[in-house]
Write a structure and sequence with these properties.
The chain contains 25 helices and no strands. The protein is mainly alpha-helical. It has one domain: Growth Hormone, Chain: A, CATH 1.20.1250.20.
Length: 499
């Protein structure tokens, strides 16, 4: 962006923290419930004997005949595809929802996602065969793709810059809440004599209803309204969510950003240009590293993982609930600190904490478990504590910031395209890891944790050297951070030194 106005400050426009914007962000962030509920529910359901016996009898048989120390109890490509098919569908739908969010607004994209997720939940709960399960999962995936594409963008555009971090992390908080709710439901339905898994899967329709209502009643973002040439409506909403009359500076910055965006005919091609190279690279690497941290190893398969290393069925589900509660509490820590300490400090501390935990988990499993050696109660408790510390580190760093930072660094002209890439990379890696983890666990055994620790070391170094601080910078003026960065400034400055 050229022009003196863009270079005067980094865009803390003031304004009050209004109940209106708080309501809009909380309801909008309810899209995170869809993602979280599915992450939590699938691992618990795939450890239930009734579900395995009905749909995956070979896995059920191997589970009950394998040695207690067998890492391969659940190694089944079809079972893994049940969990991971959702994410390949979400990957594809992310591009469609990018177009929908840009053409018709953020609200309608969320509404469409809620409706498809609702139908998918009903189909899964009523499934009579694997085909119904997979079709239901695909529809759930479309809903997740829409939510993860649209919600972070919606929150970043609605929130005042000085509170954007905390409000945006509401999305991650509701993901973690969805996981805990799902784990608690799994624990309860596992006690039922019949059809407990149907209730677990079918209840996915409940968070979908919340998202549908949000898509109906939440206000549209000022950015989206102005982008679609509804400038007076956009100005009115901006005044309402900021709680002050003088919103001219922010409004003019949004209009200027929109005018630039309207000159872009192919946002994906534009995003590939040298000017946007930092945003493009971070839009790929941040979600890639987020998933290669190994978090979905824990969150997808927590009951399966704990059962594999010797916990009983009840203890496995109970442990998964504990992990989920830690996830929620630690996400609250991020909400409180992200706009005080900044993004980089949380990224770096969380990364180091996760690396240490993964190494110690691998050490315990490598020396105290396997062959004829069953994990003792003391070491089992140690693994649970380390998993909780690992989840805590992720929950106040890579979990929320992996969605927040990409959503806030993308200028309007490439925002939908960039967010679609973020979602696609995230869901592609989620799909791959979901599809191969049980096989990795079977082949690598405890080395699976070393594998993910190595990736986390690379990710932490990437943050240290290549990710600038974005705290307190308005999304309309985020382009300025690249001009000051030791590495990226060489890419984004033109011959006159103007962005």
């Amino acid at each position: 962006m050229a022009g003196s106005m863009i270079h005067t400050s980094k865009g803390n426009y003031g304004g009050r923290f209004t109940l209106y914007v708080l309501f809009a962000c909380i309801i909008g962030a309810s899209g995170g419930l869809l993602f979280g509920y599915d992450i939590g529910i699938s691992g618990g359901v795939t450890s239930m004997d009734e579900f395995l016996l009905e749909f995956f009898p070979s896995v059920y048989e191997h589970k009950h005949t394998a040695k207690e120390t067998d890492y391969c109890k659940y190694d089944s490509q079809i079972l893994q595809f049940f969990s991971s098919s959702l994410y390949i569908a979400g990957l594809i739908s992310g591009f469609g929802s990018s177009w929908l969010a840009s053409k018709y607004g953020r609200k309608r994209s969320m509404l469409f996602g809620g409706i498809t997720f609702f139908i998918g939940g009903i189909l899964n709960g009523a499934a009579q065969n694997i085909a119904m399960l997979i079709i239901g999962r695909i529809l759930l995936g479309v809903g997740v793709g829409c939510a993860t594409q649209t919600v972070p963008m919606y929150l970043s555009e609605m929130a005042p810059s000085q509170w954007r971090g905390g409000l945006n992390i509401a999305f991650q908080f509701l993901i973690t809440l969805g996981i805990v709710i799902a784990n608690m439901i799994n624990y309860a339905t596992s006690k039922m004599s019949k059809d407990g898994w149907r209730i677990s899967l079918g209840l996915a329709s409940v968070p979908a209803i919340i998202v549908i209502l949000g898509g109906i009643f939440c206000p549209e973002t000022p950015n989206s309204l102005i982008e679609r040439n509804l400038k007076e409506e956009g100005k009115s909403i901006l005044r309402k969510i900021r709680g002050v009359e003088n919103i001219d500076t922010e409004y003019e910055d949004i209009v200027e950003a929109t005018n630039m965006a309207n000159q872009v005919t192919n946002p994906y091609k534009t995003l590939l240009s040298k000017k946007y190279r930092p945003q493009f690279i971070l839009s790929i690497l941040i979600p890639l590293f987020q998933q290669l941290s190994g978090i979905n190893v824990v969150m997808f398969y927590a009951p399966v993982l704990f059962n594999t290393i010797g916990f009983g069925a009840d203890a496995s589900l109970y442990s998964a609930v504990i992990v989920g509660v830690v996830n929620i509490l630690s996400t609250i820590v991020s909400i409180v600190l992200v706009d005080k300490l900044g993004r980089r400090a949380l990224f770096l501390e969380g990364g180091v904490q996760m690396i240490i935990c993964q190494i110690f988990i691998a050490w315990i499993l490598g020396t105290q478990f396997g062959g004829d050696v069953v994990l003792s109660k003391a070491y089992g408790t140690g693994v649970l504590v380390l998993v909780c510390l690992f989840v805590a580190g992720f929950a106040w760093s890579w979990g929320p910031l992996g969605w927040l930072v990409p959503s806030e660094i993308l200028p309007m002209e490439v925002r939908s395209a960039g967010q679609a890439i973020v979602v696609s990379v995230n869901l592609l890696l989620t799909f791959i890891i979901g599809q191969v983890f049980l096989t990795i666990l079977c082949s690598f055994k405890y080395g699976a944790f070393i594998f993910f620790a190595v990736w986390e070391i690379i990710a932490t170094l990437f943050i240290y050297f290549f990710v600038p601080e974005t705290k307190g910078v308005s999304i309309e003026k985020m382009v300025l951070i690249w001009e000051d960065h030791w590495f990226w400034k060489r890419m984004v400055r033109n011959s006159n030194g103007i962005l």
